Amino acid sequence: MIPAGFDYQRASSVDEAIALLTEHGEDAKLLAGGHSLLPLMKLRLAVPAVLIDIGRVDELAYVHAEDGEIRIGALSRHHDLAGSELLRDQVPLLAEVAGQVGDPQVRHRGTIGGSIAHGDPASDLPAVLLALRATLVARGPGGTREILVDDFFSGFLETALGADEVLTEIRVPAMADAGWSFQKFNRRAQDWAIVGVAAVLSNGGGVTQPGVGLVNMAATPVRAAGVEAALGTGASATDAAARADEGTAPPDDLNASPDFRRHLSRVLVRRALEAAGA
Amino acid sequence: MIGDRLLRKEDARLVTGEARYVDDLQIPGALWMAMVRSPFAHARIGSIDASAALSMPGVQHVFTGPDLRDAWINPMPCAWQVTEDMKTPEHWPVAIDKANFGGEIVAVVVADSRYAAADAVDAVVVDYDPLTPVVDLEEAASDQVVIHDALGSNRSYTWTLAPDPAALDQAFADAAHVVRERYVHQRLIPAAMEPRGVAVVPSPYGGDITLYSATQIPHILKIMTTATCGVPEHKVRVVAPAVGGGFGSKLDVYAEELVAVALAQRLGVPTRWTETRSEAGVATIHGRGVIQEMEMAADADGRITGVRAKVLSDMGAYLQLVTPGIQLLGAFLFAGVYDVPTYHFECTGVFTNRTPTDAYRGAGRPEATYAVERTVDALARAVGIDPVEIRRRNYVQADQFPYQSAGTLLYDSGNYEPTLDQALELIGYDQLRAEQQRRRDAGETKHLGIGISTYVEMCGLAPSRVLASLNYAAGGWEAATVRILPTGTVQVVSGTTPHGQGHETSWAQIVADRLGIDPDMVEVLHSDTAISPVGMDTYGSRSLPVGGVAVAMATDAVLTKARLIAAHQLECAEDDLELVDGSLQVVGTPTKAMTLQEVAFEAFSAHNLPDGMEPNLHAQVTYDPPNFTFPFGTHVAVVEIDEETGQVDLVDYAAVDDCGNQVNPMIVEGQIHGGIVQGAAQALWEEAVYDADGTLRNPTLVDYCVPSAAELPNFRLGSTVTPSPTNPLGVKGIGEAGTIAATPTVINAVVDGLSHLGVTDITMPATPERVWSTIQAARGTGEVDQ
Fold it and tell me: Is the pLDDT score of B38 beyond 70?
């Protein structure tokens, strides 16, 4: 409830944020919507010495189409993504899931970049980006680089972002005519998923192969690689779903044991694939 | 007026933020307290090194238990000595040499700001010597490790109600059916929207103190402040400002209140503390924590001939204000709404190394109702009849009231079967049974379950003589004052202490109804012992059937005096006056009249009153009820159970309740809505989970699953009206009924939905993994899809 003391700096541009990160190094944390970081600080599970607020860097709040893909500014709020006509039309999976994050207050403050950079395996959006094989764009003192989503989540709440880098953009393929589904299993609407599944089927265009991302099935957001491989060889939804937990390491918490999560992943992947039209 | 759905007078200031809770109070110069709490469930306290904390900016003092021991003349109070030989551990606000639950206060940091105090807590170094924690209730009862050395046992008391043991034994010996059930009520965290808070302001001279607290019981707290801190009672003023819910958890005297008083006196400056949500999980009392062994005997037709209930009740580490008596509030109700001739109840209170338990919405009656209503369903299965039919066969019939129960209560009134009929109609029972069968025949994996519960409860605490017979330390009366002011508006001073119930609205309706005036002319004052010095506060669904009745009686007394004045001035006989729209008129001559406002001014000026009459128009009444009130009803829940995931969805719910005459049906419905949610929460969502070391694993609202509107259906509400003959308003309490009914209703639905698989029980809360595992066990298989 009462966080430890910290210094507060507000950045008005990406460049200023990078400069502040460079100045304060490992002691600093970026603050965007604050809906992951501030609760951790109030429980004193996170004790950053400096908060660099990028919440007003408006240059990073956008959604537009370019080169056959959809580019999303990292500071786009979940609520804005859920309501974006371009996204609803071209990447309905992402728009739908953005509308299911947390509760209305969280969706009005929380940002897609914050959710991705936090790297929480229990968050919904990382699984969606895995399913869509997204590309992430980061900017640091040395310039801009692209990171494939499969290379991004490196450990529990750890990512490939450098301490002096800002996640600026998320790029996903247009998937208008691809089958898709998101299955979120929880006890209360506002909760993180106990297990979640984001699935998209190939549309022969921007989505060249089926993608299945899992929520809360390991220390990082993970891809259901066994399912994707099975689908690639023409397996039925039921047969492919039987491989849902391959390569996962589900957590043990008050909501579910690892074995129950494995079971849920198989049920939910099957439902997702069936709903997507596999 | 009575019976109108008047919008609540309280709500504008609550929704605009005008209302002030304890934490909102601006108190210049106040020092903030933060509590150093034991991380261990059971540990000896060695040395405490506060030097690092004291060197931090803004930190003024750090006090340990021994530092403060002489600040109190008595330990923390327990007001309910349920048996002569009940064992009560000494309980000081700050632990002296041993911590007996995780979260017990071992030191107090006092600082200039809340932040400085919070920062310093981690800098206080306490040398703990951990002891074996006693976490499991049945292990605790075995006394392998005794928590309180001086008591020699973890068993605090055994309380027995055995009116006729020989008859009971005979009933079981003769029975065609005997069902034996074991039920576990998990610990629940009350989770009021506003955590607790306290602020104590000493007077600059004279030794008076004002204690602001988020409490349900300012009057009782005032007496207990005197009893523990030694401040003379007339020097203590207790104020409960806006209070954001309690559910029983603020019906207590807490360590933080007594520490704040002690330090305000010692330091001579205001002291204050606001609980954090995580602190509330361990520092505020828990509810339930009960294991029941239930036996029911019946004849071949399923007519119940006897009940025998044995209960273990988890006290936690200490006895708080009414901890040992909670199960006694349900002890008389283990036959429920049924005509059962023989009866046995016994309860043993046991200490564990966990947060103390105490009153939580329903307090004993949800536990009793759960045992009865689940066991009746088990009996229906044993006899082979529908749960509706088993209930019809056993109800106490309308012509049996007043009904003397084998459990020694006199049920003042009742008519149970119409509530069942109406509830079945509302929910569409026959169609649901057909749909349930269709799904089963089709082999579908989403099962339908229908659960029923008919309850009766005893509330309106309470007749003082009955409380005396139970060894409760206080009475159960309530006080009210009504004043018609010289300009005609009305002031009501209530001894009840609302913290969400809407007394300002309901009491205004009662007064306005009787005086024939606009309820906006009635102001209700409460929750400040300087304004309302006499009262017994709010708990046990007592406010309306005791306090509201006192308000009505005080109104009548004022009206009687007004009639005497009007008759005197209009020169007519008192019997010739009738009250019409707030005016006393001579019957048949409406022009010859005085408004109540005119009468009030005459009473104030006192120029022309009857000989010997005192001036002014006010009356105080203290009402001690002759009996409890006995609200009843039938609830029906419909659940869908996903066999593949174990998810239980509560998809429909009907509740038909009878609380006698309703003063404000909207407020009644609000109580029932919230009550159903809290009862369903025990069935499906909430549980305080401890690990083997006695550490609470889910003190935050992320992990402690209080449900929201998104998880619940719209409720179908109905009612019947059987006025209580016990009080002149014909009213009964309704604050706890929803909670009492809902838990067994929902669990009966879950068990019903899986009964074709052979499932007869499910542990609460019925989480997806539990339900799924139960199905697996019933099917005797591994995974369904493997």
Answer: yes
Interface pTM, i.e. ipTM:
0.95
- Residue-wise pLDDT for B433-473, tens only, equals 999 999 999 999 999 999 999 999 999 999 999 999 999 99
Pair B48, B126: CB distance under 8 Å: yes
Contact assessment for residue A91 and residue A45, using Cβ atoms and an 8 Å cutoff: no
Indicate the SS3 state at residue B687. coil
Distance CA B555, CA B502 (A): 19
Interface test with A, best of B769, B770, B779, B784 (most A CBs within 10 A): B769
Interface contact flag, B119 A43, Cβ < 8 Å: no
Q: Measured in whole angstroms, how far is the alpha carbon of residue B765 from the centre of its chain?
A: 20
CA distance B561 to B618: 9
The partner residues of A198 in beta bridges, in order of sequence, read: A182, A213
End-to-end CA distance of chain A: 47
- Residues of chain A with C-beta less than 8 angstroms from the C-beta of B698: 254
As a whole number of angstroms, the distance between CA A44 and CA B118 comes to: 11
Q: CA–CA separation, A121 vs A196, rounded Å? A: 10
The DSSP secondary structure of B582-607, one letter per residue, reads: TEEEETTEEEEEEEHHHHHHHHHH-S
Judged by CB atoms closer than 8 Å, whether chains meet at B647 and A254 is answered as no
Contact A260/B769, CB-based, under 8 Å?
yes
* Helix locations, B10-146, DSSP H: 11-16, 51-54, 65-68, 114-121, 137-141
State how far Cα B392 lies from the chain centre.
30
Contacts of A242 (CB under 8 A, 6+ apart): A266, B785
Taking residues B680-693, report their average pLDDT.
Answer: 98
Q: Do B708 and A189 touch (CB under 8 A)?
A: yes
Band of residue B784 on the pLDDT scale cut at 50, 70, 90: very low
Residue pLDDT, tens place only, A59-88: 999 999 999 899 999 999 999 999 999 999
Tokens of B269: 């400056």
Q: Which of B751, B699, B765, B691 is nearest to B186 (CA)?
A: B765
Tell me the nearest-neighbour CA distance from A188 into chain B, angstroms: 6
Task: Choose the closest CB to A1 out of B277, B702, B711.
Answer: B277
* Whole-angstrom distance, CA of residue B265 vs CA of residue B282: 27
In this complex, the residue of B277, B700, B708 whose CB is nearest that of residue A188 is B708
Beginning with the edge strand found earlier in the chain, give each strand of the sheet holding A69-73 in spatial order: A63-66, A69-73, A166-173, A135-140, A143-148
| Smallest Cα distance from A137 to chain B, Å | 32
Does the beta-carbon distance from A2 to B276 stay under 8 Å? yes
**What residue of B is the nearest CA neighbor of A259?**
B769
User: Among B760, B780, B753, B758, which Cα is nearest to B646's?
Assistant: B753
Question: Phi/psi at B707 (nearest 5 deg)?
Answer: -75, 160
Integer Cα distance of A30 and A9 in angstroms: 10
Flag if A1 and B647 touch (Cβ within 8 Å): no
Identify the contact set of chain A against chain B, taking CB-CB distances under 8 A.
1-2, 4-5, 39, 43, 185, 187-191, 194, 242, 254-257, 260, 263-264, 266-268, 270
Which of B645, B696, B783 to mutate against chain A (most A CBs within 10 Å)? B645
Backbone φ and ψ for B684, nearest 5 degrees, come out as -120, -25
| pTM summary value | 0.97
- Exposure letters A94-108 (e unless 16+ CB within 10 A, then b): bbbbbebbbeeebbe
How many interface pairs between A and B have CB atoms less than 8 angstroms apart? 62
